Amino acid sequence: MNRILKNFSYTFFSNIVSTLISLLVTLTIPRMIGVESYGYFQLYMLYITFLGIFHLGWVDGMYLKLGGKSYDSLDSKLFSGQFKIFMLTEFIISLFSCVLFVVICESTDKMLVLLAASVCMLLYNSNIFIQFILLATNQIKQYASIIILDRLLYLVFVLLFLLFKGNSYKGLLIADLLSRMISLLYAILKNKRLLVSDSYKLSTNFTEIKENILIGYKVTFGGIAGIFITGIIRFMMEGKWGIVFFGKISLALTLSNLMMVFVNAVSMVVFPILKKVQTEDLSFYYRKMRDILMISVFTLMIFYYPVKYVLSIWLPIYSESLHYMSLMFPIIIFNSKTAMLINTYLKVTRKESIILISNLFSLLISIIIGYVSIFIISSPNLAVLSIVASLAIRSILAEKQLCDHLNINITKDTILEISVTVFFMVINWYIKSAISILLYGVVLVIYFVLKRKDIKSTFVFVSKKSK
To answer: Where are the transmembrane segments (predicted)?
Structure first.
């Protein structure tokens, strides 16, 4: 238990640092650069979320295979060869992408954004390769140090950019690339025994690579499909209403997703722990973890009110973003459950195909309702709601299949959670005064009363485990 708490503390600290830096950058950049320039910066941030597709499941397969193993037992010959082949592959794809975008792009700004994203591909995926090894083998302290270094460097470079009165997105792209490059070099140096061995067999490595890809491609393509659920609607918005509107919606989405930085990291810590849990105990742990997560998320939703108030004063030009945030803030409810619990459990139980199927189905729904709301009805409100609806469908569909496998019935919980979510959205969309806080407080109290038995049993469980 002490090891788990220590790993959690490393993850918690690194992601608190990462979240605070993201919050600081999110609050500072829109105020310092133009709305259009901020839109191009957000377009870059959207592009880099899709970079994981270019390892084709290689890294995810490796992560699934290594889960629960000891770092010291890893064969340097095997991983050194893989890492070199991996970096060479990413370099070739990156170089080809750069040439392609120079040839086909008509807009200079979009070309620069795509070129930066192509360079980022090599840095991002190579760093993920190392980080996933560390996470799978429970080297959480070192993983946390890489994350903290990367984000601190990013903050320093962004502040330097703003200090010299930079008012273009280009400096922000350079800041991101520099921080990723330095943190990658640091990660390689910290793991040079494993990654820079001169002795390795190509035939053995290619066999291992093939096996990793076959294991991990469902997770990778399922994850990319999951990102496309929101990404495709954002691309449609940019195409229909332009880069300025895209930037404003992206700010609301970024603010709504800030907590996901922490949630995603915790899910990485949970995976190797659950790999060691007896199969018959997984259902019990799922129930408890689910209660802890949902109670925490619904309570944290209260922070919507002070956040919106402060931002309305700090970023008055983005009032439209804050208007839509009342609809988009509940995204954390569905995304946190999917990332921390559902996908983690599906990976542990080797049901990766469920991730792929549920994400592909939800992506199809997203494309249909996004296209109708944007290009046929031309309603920004419905477009934003379609993002939330698509993510809710993904979460509900995947959890239903997982719980059938675990022999758990969570229908009542799901209905209750959807009800609270809808109340939150309706209250804050139509009521702009402080009364909305009181009304959500009442809804939250009702939720706690209805869940009082589960809360009590979960509290007893946590108390016993912490001793």
So the answer is: 12-33, 45-64, 85-105, 111-136, 143-163, 219-237, 249-271, 292-315, 321-342, 354-377, 429-450
